[in-house]
Amino acid sequence: MKLSLFVHMERTLPDEPQEKLYQEMIELCEIADRGGMHAIWTGEHHGMNFTIAPNPFINLADIARRTSRVRLGTGTIIAPFNHPIRLAGEAAMTDIITGGRLELGIARGAYSYEYERLMPGLTAWDAGQRMRELIPAVKKLWQGDYAHQGEYWSFPATTSSPLPKQQPHPPIWVAARDPNSHEFAVQNGCNVQVTPLHQGEEEIVRLVTCFNEARARFAAEQPLKIMLLQHGYVAEDEADARLAAEELNRFYHYFGAWFKNQRPVRQGLIQPLSDEEIAANTYYSAEMMRTNLAIGTANEVITRLKKYEALGYDEFALWIDSGMSFARKKASLERFIRCVMPEFH
C-alpha cells in the first residue's frame, strides 16, 4: 500500500498571515517528498478559510518546482465549477509543468456554502450528474477533435490545448461514496478515492466492498486502484494521542458546521464554536476520534494501516488538515515517515 499526504492551507484565526500558512504547507510537502511519500494531494474550495484552495493546479505547479519525485494530485477538482474544455487544458498544462506527475481527482463537491455562491440553486444530484458528463468529455478532448452535445455543456469539435504529457492521459480518480458512484468510476476506467470521515471500520469495509463489487461487475481486468483518505496523527505517547483526538474532535465540529451551512461567516471565517457547543454536540467526540482515526503511537498506526492494506486499499493518504499547530503537524509527519513508512516499503 502506497502512503501519501493530503494537505491544504487552513486558517482558523483572522490574525494568521496567509503567506505564512502557505509556506508552512509547502514545507510539509517538501518533507513528504524527501521522505519518499508516494503523492501529495490538495483540493479545490472557494471562499472558505477553513480550506484555502481556489485552484489546486496553481499549488501543484509550485510544489512541482520544489520537489523531485512525488506524484501530485488534485483531491479534488469540483466538477460543476469546471467547463470540460477548461479543465482538460488546465490539467494537461499542469501535467506538462510537473513532468508527468499529475493525478487528476474529481468530485461533485460537498459544501452547499460553495454551491450557493458559485452556482446558485445547484443540488448535490445535479452536481453528481455534471461530474458524470464532465469526465468522459475531458477524456475525449484529450483524444482530440471532440464535439459535445450534453445536458450541461455543448461545444463544437475541440481538441484540448495542450495535450497531457502522460499518455493516453493522467490517471483519473473519482471521489465515491455510494455504489452508483463506484460503478460510474469503474465503468469509465477511473480509480476511486474514498473518505470515511470520522466513521469507523464498518464504513471503511463498506467503501472498499463497493469498489470491489463494481470492479467484479464491470471491469475486473482493469488495474484500477482505491485510495483511503483519513485523518491521522503519529503520537509520541498516549497523552499526545489523546491531545490529537481532542484537536481533531474540534476540527470535525467545525467541519460539520461548515457542512450544515447555518452559522454566520465573516471574512471567510465561521463564527467560533464555544467549548459548551462542542461539548453539547454528541455526534462527534474525542473518544470517537481516538477509536476511528489513525491516531496513536507509531506501532498503533502501523497496525491500523496494515488492516487497511489487507482489506485491499492500494493507497492511504494521511489527511493532515486538523486545526493543529504547524509544529504538531510537522512532528507527526516526520514520525510517520521515520517510523511508519518503512513497514510499507
In the CATH hierarchy, what is the class? Alpha Beta
Q: End-to-end distance, in Å?
A: 8 Å
CATH topology: TIM Barrel
Instruction: Supply the helix-strand structural class.
Output: alpha/beta
Measured by DSSP, the beta-strand proportion falls in 15-25%
CATH superfamily: Luciferase-like domain
- Arrangement of strands in the largest sheet: 1-2-3-4-7-8-9-13
Shape call? globular
Profile the largest sheet.
8 strands, parallel, barrel
Uncertain stretches of 5 or more adjacent residues: none
Total strands: 13
In round numbers, the mean pLDDT is 97
Number of helices: 12
Number of domains: 1
Radius of gyration: 20 Å
- Give the SSE string: EHEHEHEHHEEEHEHEHEEHHEHEH
Helical coverage, percent range: 40-55%
- CATH architecture term: Alpha-Beta Barrel
Domain Luciferase-like: 1-314
GO molecular function: monooxygenase activity; oxidoreductase activity, acting on paired donors, with incorporation or reduction of molecular oxygen
Pfam families: Bac_luciferase
EC number: 1.-.-.-
Textual characterization of the structure:
The chain has 345 residues and is an alpha/beta fold. The chain has one domain: TIM Barrel (Alpha-Beta Barrel). The strands form 3 sheets. Strands 1-2-3-4-7-8-9-13 form an 8-stranded parallel barrel, surrounded by 9 helices. The chain has a two-stranded antiparallel sheet with strand order 5-6. Strands 10-11 form a two-stranded antiparallel sheet. Helix 1 packs parallel to helix 12 and helix 6 packs parallel to helix 7. The longest helix is centred in the last third of the chain and has 23 residues. The model has no long low-confidence stretch (mean pLDDT 97).
